[in-house]
Each structure stands twice: as structure tokens, then as C-alpha cells.
Design brief:
255 residues, alpha/beta, Rossmann fold, globular
């Protein structure tokens, strides 16, 4: 019996134009006995801006910040794995500003900090939240990290550069920098243990390379997996659908 539906957001259950398919919304609303849980690289402040947020379960935490934080919709943090000083130092030693579009992090799911020198990205950041602090000074951004430590730093680049020694999950030009050994897969394991569930009692909906720590985790092989889209042609799943609009039909069969 399926008891939990764990969902990636962008491209899996949320369309590219930031819409939640009506059939998926209705399925969630009609099955409150299930845990509807998000597993996303977004921080909670960015998750609140999505159309699926209001329909997620309130009584269980969600996997946010690439697995570095387990947080309830209320903003209460259940568990958080912060980047260590040495890990932050290694990251900044590798950072190449000429290829960096922006850095972003949210320490608590409410306030957030951005480094960028690009006016268009400043405008984009200002539209996300009223609680974002933007700086063009990298030293100032590092000072924010010292005062408000991060579980994940989001890096967007214009060109790839060497990040050896840095732990990250990548999706095209986006990098989620987290503590070594911390990712969506490690958070998923914690969540199953806390809920007292077997892997076979959970469904995971995914579409991207930053979902692979769940898909490829040996302890999660029993999870029923639904792959959306064709971004991962070499990755097998129990079900494969074309778009988020097709997810609800498969879920209805499973549950």
C-alpha cells in the first residue's frame, strides 16, 4: 500500500511555465490520507512561490535545499546539515567570478542572500521575495554566510569551471553546493525512517540529474519511480511519462 508520494518540483510536477496540472491538484486534494511531500533543490522561500505549495502535506516536513534541510511548511526546521567552514572555503577558492552569474542561499526558509553584478538578475531576485538581500560584493556575501550559515549555496554559471573538492549536484548550469554526503537521497532515507515506512510504500516523481541520489541509492531501490520527460534517457524507472500533465494518470493507477 502506498503511503507517501515524494515529488520533485520543476519539470516533474510543475510545468516549465510554473503551473500545477489540474488533474494532479485534484488527485492530491482527493487523497488526504497520503503524505504529499516535496523533495526539491529549492529553499522553502522559493517553494512557497510555486503553485503546488498549498497542496503539500502540513504534518510532515519537506526535503528542501537539495536535501540539506528538512523543513515543515510552517518554517519549522526538523533537521539541517550546514556547510562547514572548510567546505565554504574550498568552494570560494574554486569560484571563478568571471563565469558566475549569481549565488543564492536562504538560511531559514524566509530571508535570503544573493550575490550578483547583473542588473537583470537583481531585478529577478527582487521579484522573488521582499526578504532578499542583494550584494555585488563577494566579501559581503561571505560575511552573510558567517553570520547566517547555509545548508546549501545555489550557484548559477555562464560557463563551467573546475569545482573539484566541492560537493554538489548539478542541473545544466545550476549547482547545488551542500555538505559532503548530503543530498536528496540521504534526506529521503531519513524521511522513511521517521515515517516508519518501507521504500516500497513510497513513490518518487523525478526528471533531473539532481534527483539521481534518490534514484540510484541502493537502499531506495524499492521505491516506485516515475520519470518525467526525456532529460535522463539512460535512467530506468518503473514508469515514464512525457510531461507533468501525465503524472496524475500514473499515480491514480498506483494508489
Amino acid at each position: 500500500m502506498i503511503k507517501a508520494i515524494i515529488m520533485d518540483g520543476d519539470g516533474s510536477t510543475i510545468t516549465q511555465d510554473n503551473k500545477l496540472p489540474d488533474n494532479l491538484r485534484d488527485l492530491i486534494c482527493n487523497n488526504p490520507q497520503l503524505k504529499w511531500i516535496m523533495a526539491t533543490g529549492r529553499s522553502m522561500d522559493l517553494l512557497r512561490a510555486t503553485p503546488i505549495y498549498d497542496y503539500l502535506s502540513d504534518d510532515i516536513y519537506h526535503i528542501v535545499d537539495g536535501g540539506s534541510c528538512l523543513m515543515y511548511k510552517s518554517g519549522s526546521i526538523y533537521k539541517q546539515h550546514l556547510l562547514g567552514k572548510d567546505e565554504v572555503d574550498i568552494f570560494f577558492a574554486k569560484l571563478q567570478l568571471q563565469h558566475t552569474n549569481w549565488l543564492y542561499y536562504s538560511p531559514d526558509g524566509y530571508k535570503a542572500f544573493v550575490y550578483t553584478t547583473q542588473d537583470k538578475l537583481k531585478e529577478k531576485a527582487n521579484k522573488i521575495s521582499d526578504f532578499i538581500t542583494i550584494t555585488e560584493n563577494l566579501s559581503e556575501f561571505r560575511d552573510y554566510l558567517s553570520t547566517f550559515p547555509a545548508g546549501k549555496i545555489f550557484l548559477n554559471v555562464s560557463q563551467e569551471f573546475d569545482l573539484s573538492g566541492v560537493h554538489y549536484q548539478r542541473n545544466e548550469n545550476n549547482f547545488d553546493i551542500t555538505k559532503h554526503g548530503i543530498h536528496k537521497g540521504s534526506a529521503f532515507i531519513d524521511m522513511l525512517a521517521d515515517l516508519g515506512l518501507q521504500a516500497s510504500e513510497a513513490v518518487f516523481i523525478f526528471n533531473d540529474s539532481n534527483d539521481l541520489p534518490i534514484v540510484n541509492h541502493p537502499d531506495l531501490s524499492g521505491v516506485i519511480k516515475i520519470k518525467v520527460g526525456d532529460y535522463l534517457p539512460n535512467i530506468n524507472a518503473d514508469y515514464h511519462v512525457k510531461t507533468p500533465y501525465d503524472v496524475a494518470n500514473i499515480l491514480r493507477q498506483i494508489i
